[in-house]
Structures are given as structure tokens and as C-alpha cells.
Design goal:
13 helices; 11 strands; seven-stranded mixed beta sheet; two-stranded antiparallel ribbon; Dehydroquinate synthase-like, alpha domain; alpha/beta; Rossmann fold
Length: 362
């Protein structure tokens, strides 16, 4: 069991801890302060449930516990799946003092959190992320949602968890492809707020892929520290928190055009980050050598650096559905340097179309 690291999301009365360490799922009573004597409903999936549900129920004591196992994958992050969770909560007569726990990756956290946000106008929930992507990003900050055929995460709510428990031992069962996908979100933090951390990632890429426990714990803790700071500054994403969307407008378009589930979210974000870097260089705000550093690290982490072959007009149409569109203009997070980013809609549309034509033909 590794030493536990604690980060906090400071939101006044709604502040909550993020605990990071190995073996946390084997600590009886670790969640008692956030659950009390309440009934517990666990949302997991049919991959994670068989691996970790028994351990979770073992630390919850004698409370009434029910659970639902969802099908695995982004394709099931739908209103129909949300309705199935709510049906179980209603059938089980869970009251407003119940606590919902999400046990799984980003899809489970997003849809389970949205169920908690909407059931009886909102019940408490705890995030227990088991994928690297969820541990460093989606489990922190209170964004909950489901997808719609028209776009990703278009239906959702802000609903902060009561606590986030990151047991790094769960990464031992994570497939290599999903580990790499999670590292895309880690790279994002170095690019938007901390050039020194980006340099650390360049030096430790092999350690991260080899699942070195100390390297992974450090990367997770740093990512959560950056995320917590931005959420505390801008909970509803009206300002600086939007920088966390670096690569995501491109990435969401990749997921939509390729078909949900064909690309992992982190893979799409990785290619999207490289596209954002290339566009930043085209506009003259980022040095070409920095674009190369970004592509080199992305590739070293086993991630794609280019999008799938799609028509530029189709891709642009998919980008225009993104939640970050305002006043009919696409807003993008672009880079001024490694460690410095900005959100802007002030760029020539012709340059955007030229970049897409170039990138999508590679």
C-alpha cells in the first residue's frame, strides 16, 4: 500500500477531497464520513464490476447496497442507459439521503454522476475511478452527461461529488491501450499550465507506460492538482476552466465521425491536441519545434497524432455541434507556448478549413 496523497477541490461548503494511493479499496471505513448510515447504490460496468465490486462492498459494511452493471463502452452512454439506472433506483425505493458510487471509467462516472444529479433532484455521489483517464480528469470537477446522436455530452449537469477515491492499484488490470488513452489527458495539463511538468512527462514516458507505481502516482497527483485548481477558479466553465478542453473540440469530432467506440476518448483527444498545436503554429502563436515536441511525446506514449481520414466539411460540421460553440463561432483552445494556452474564436475560418484538409488527408 503506497502513501496516500490528498488533493482538494475548494468550493466552499461543497469542497471535497481527492485521495490518491494504492490499496485504498482495501481500507474499511474509508468512505464512512461521506456516506454515514445511508443506503448505497453502485453504478459499474460488466468489465470493472467482476474485478472490484466485491472489494468495494467489503469496505461499505452492513449498509443496504444495490448495484447495476452497465454494458462497457462509449456507445452505451445514452439516455436509455440513464433511464435503466433511474428505474433501478426507483424500484429499490432509494431515498434522497442515499449515496450513489460510480465504480469504473469515464463513461460510468459521467452517466452515474448524471443519474445522481437528476434522481430526486440530486443525491450525493462518490467517484471511484478505475481508468487513468477518469482518475486524472473526468472524475474530478462535477461534469456529468450522456451523449446524443447529435453530439457528445450534449445532455448533462454540473454535480460535484462528495469525494473522489483513486486507488492506483486498479490500473494493474487496465489494458495498455486504455492506459495510453489516459495519458493524453495528463499531457494536456503540461501543455496548458505547466511546461516543467510537460518536460517531466518527456523524461518519464517509458516509466509511465511500464506502469511504474511512483511515476503513475506522481502524474495522477499533479493532474488532479491542476484540475482542482481550475475547477475552484471556474466551476461552471465560464473562463479558465475551458482551457481543459485543449484538443477536445477536434477530439469529439473524431469520435463522432469515426463512430462512438471506434476511437477511445483519450486517443481522439491526443490527435486533437496535435491538431490544435498544428493550428496554433499555422496562426503563428506556437513555434514549429514545440509542435514537434508535442507530436513526439504523443507518439512515444502510444497515441495517434493524426485524425482518421474524413472529409473536411464533414469534420467541420461535427466540430460546429460542440458545446464550446458560441454565437455561431467555434471556440478553440490554442497554444501560445508549451505551458500557456488561450480560448479564442478569433481565427480565420479559411485557415481552419485549410488545416483540416491538410490533416485529414494524412
Amino acid at each position: 500500500m503506497s502513501e496516500r496523497i490528498e488533493q482538494r477541490v475548494e468550493l466552499g461548503e461543497r469542497s471535497y477531497p481527492i485521495w490518491i494511493g494504492g490499496g485504498l479499496l482495501s481500507e474499511p471505513g474509508i468512505l464512512d464520513a461521506f456516506i454515514g448510515a445511508a443506503d448505497v447504490f453502485v453504478v459499474t460496468n460488466d468489465v470493472v464490476g467482476p474485478l472490484y465490486l466485491h472489494a468495494l462492498t467489503g469496505i461499505l459494511g452492513t449498509r443496504r447496497i444495490d448495484h447495476v452493471e452497465l454494458p462497457d463502452g462509449e456507445a452505451h452512454k445514452t439516455m436509455a442507459t440513464l433511464e435503466s439506472i433511474l428505474d433501478r433506483l426507483i424500484a429499490g425505493r432509494f431515498a434522497r439521503d442515499a449515496v450513489l458510487i460510480t465504480l469504473g471509467g469515464g463513461v460510468v462516472g459521467d452517466i452515474g454522476g448524471f443519474a445522481a444529479a437528476t434522481y430526486q433532484r440530486g443525491i450525493r455521489f462518490i467517484q471511484l475511478p478505475t481508468t487513468l483517464l477518469a482518475q486524472v480528469d473526468s472524475a474530478v470537477g462535477g461534469k456529468t452527461a450522456v451523449n446524443h446522436p447529435g453530439g457528445k455530452n450534449l445532455i448533462g449537469a454540473f454535480h460535484q461529488p462528495s469525494a473522489v477515491l483513486v486507488d492506483t492499484d486498479t490500473l494493474a488490470t487496465l489494458p495498455d491501450r486504455e492506459l495510453s488513452a489516459g495519458l493524453a489527458e495528463v499531457v494536456k495539463y503540461g501543455l496548458i499550465v505547466d511546461a516543467e511538468f510537460f518536460g517531466w512527462l518527456e523524461a518519464h514516458a517509458a516509466d509511465l507506460l511500464a506502469r511504474d507505481p511512483a511515476a503513475l502516482q506522481y502524474a495522477i497527483a499533479q493532474s488532479c492538482r491542476f484540475k482542482a485548481r481550475l475547477v475552484a477558479e471556474d466551476e461552471r466553465e465560464q473562463g479558465r476552466r475551458a482551457l481543459l478542453n485543449l484538443g477536445h473540440t477536434y477530439g469529439h469530432a473524431i469520435e463522432r465521425c469515426a463512430g462512438y467506440g471506434q476511437w477511445l476518448h483519450g486517443e481522439a483527444v491526443a490527435a486533437g491536441i496535435c491538431m490544435a498545436a498544428a493550428f496554433s503554429a499555422r496562426l503563428g502563436t506556437l513555434k514549429p519545434q514545440d509542435v514537434e515536441r508535442i507530436r513526439k511525446l504523443t507518439a512515444a506514449l502510444g497515441l495517434p497524432t493524426t485524425p482518421p481520414p474524413v472529409g473536411a466539411e464533414e469534420f467541420l460540421a461535427a466540430m460546429s455541434i460542440d458545446k464550446k460553440v458560441a454565437g455561431g463561432r467555434i471556440r478553440l483552445v490554442l497554444l501560445r507556448a508549451i505551458g500557456a494556452a488561450e480560448l479564442t474564436a478569433d481565427f480565420p475560418q479559411d485557415d481552419m478549413l485549410a488545416l483540416l484538409t491538410e490533416q485529414l488527408q494524412q
